[in-house]
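Review form for a predicted model. The reviewer records the input and the model, then writes brief findings.
Reviewer: anonymous (R2)
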Amino acid sequence: MANAPKVTIAPAKGRLGILTPGMGAVATTFIAGTIAVAKGLAKPIGSLTQMGTIRLGKRTDNRVPAIKEFVPLADISDVAFGGWDLFAENAYESAVHAGVLERDLLEKIRPELEAIKPMKAVFDKKYVKKLDGTHVKTGGTKWDYAQMLMEDIKNFKEENKVDRLVMVWCGSTEIFLKPEDVHQTVEAFEKGLKEDHPGIAPSMIYAYAAIKMGIPYANGAPNLSADFPAMLELARQTNTPICGKDFKTGQTLMKTILAPGLKTRLLGLSGWFSTNILGNRDGEVLDDPDSFKTKEESKLSVLEQILQPNVYPDLYKDFYHKVRINYYPPRGDNKEGWDNIDIFGWLGYPMQIKVDFLCRDSILAAPIVLDLAIFLDLAKRANFAGIQEWLSFYFKSPATKPGLYPEHDIFIQHMKLKNTLRYMMDEEQITHLGADYYEYYR
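Model under review:
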């Protein structure tokens, strides 16, 4: 190790405020779970920041500390939760309504949850057609709403006595939008806010407010939100970390685990048919074709990037990929993702893989929200600005430098994340070459 670290990380002094636009099933499962873990009532299963370890040096060194002991992370017992929602329910009422967590657990932390009340949301039904908001801001331009959000953030920081903030979008999927001229520069975007440009959706207003104030921002939905030139420019101006979009939870998580295995063994793919049923608010929103189009674009891109048909045309050229999402109210938050995978092997002989993932959407998403909040706070204290590609591990649509294709292989993403932590702490990068253990050469 060098005498002086390459990265100077400010200590995690004081409280961290975690703001979530959207305080429905995902956000309340995250909030309630984090409170329960901090009180010793449950384990943070699925959280890399809380349960993960990291190998340092050679395997023979036996140095495998917990990540939270290796890197100066915020302590989850010293955080404050806040956010905005279309409905006025407090976090306890919203968690009960979502029906994800058992009432017995919620009752044990009821006072803490009841104290968390959502601020009025920025909402426009044109962008999420299946929802009607009753707890929303009114009477202004999109520029006015951005100013209102920044005022909300200032008040939250003061009232909760927090020193640092992060924002993680946990709201619904908006309709599909493509970047336009209004998204190209900060000047054009701010002009668009003042003129109520239709290409500016509510999630973009939240992203703008956060990034303008230097608050790290992550997007849990597939919306066009912070992944366009104006926001990248603003992030550079305000020295703000930003990252990808659309939490990698159920079916896509399985794809990023299975597809690298097929490619590693050079097994061909003829087709991959995916269908989902879910009955929560997300399922209802995605029942609208325009919102589903946004989700579909995110889900379809994963296999193409992992399998590289142009590099392996004999194995993956023209494979058929279909994704379906069906709203089925009786299933609630317990999503079912079913996959039929047609593959072929030696001499072209066909085989099949069937996957039926009976998962819990918010249970898989909650630790992602926690990790992103904790890691984004670390990035801010390390003076990292702009796109944080090392956090691709958590997203269906990782953010990358313009012109650079995203890395979707979850195992490569995992290595990239841990090597970034090693880099921060001036530890040697691990390549897994291992030649120094053996006498391969003399």
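Findings: The mean pLDDT is 93.
Further findings: The chain has two domains: 16-248+362-424, 251-358.
Recommendation: see findings above.
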